[in-house]
Amino acid sequence: MKGRIRYCPSDNLYTLSETCSSCGKPTITPHPARYSPDDRYGKYRRMIR
Q1: Which residues lie across from 26 on neighbouring strands?
Q2: Positive or negative, the Cα torsion across 10, 15, 19, 24?
Q3: In UniProt terms, what function does this protein have (predicted)?
């Protein structure tokens, strides 16, 4: 555990663990990806939109 808050999308709960304590499903990080000026794949993400 790195100390970052995590989110369970099925229960709408925030936790610090890798799995949700109420449903047992894996949690995700609610933070956006870091910005990098040397974004190699930004062109492709913009093409999808």
Answers
A1: 19
A2: negative
A3: Involved in ribosome biogenesis; more specifically in 18S rRNA pseudouridylation and in cleavage of pre-rRNA.
- Asked whether the beta carbons of 11 and 20 are under 8 A apart, the reply is yes
How high is the pLDDT of residue 2? Answer: 61
Q: With a threshold of 0.85, does the pTM exceed it?
A: no
Asked if residues 31 and 14 have their Cβ atoms less than 8 Å apart, the reply is no
For residue range 1-41, what is the model confidence (pLDDT) as tens digits? 466 899 999 988 999 999 998 898 999 988 887 888 888 88
40 Cβ contact list (under 8 Å, min separation 6): none
Which two three-digit tokens encode residue 15? 């936790």
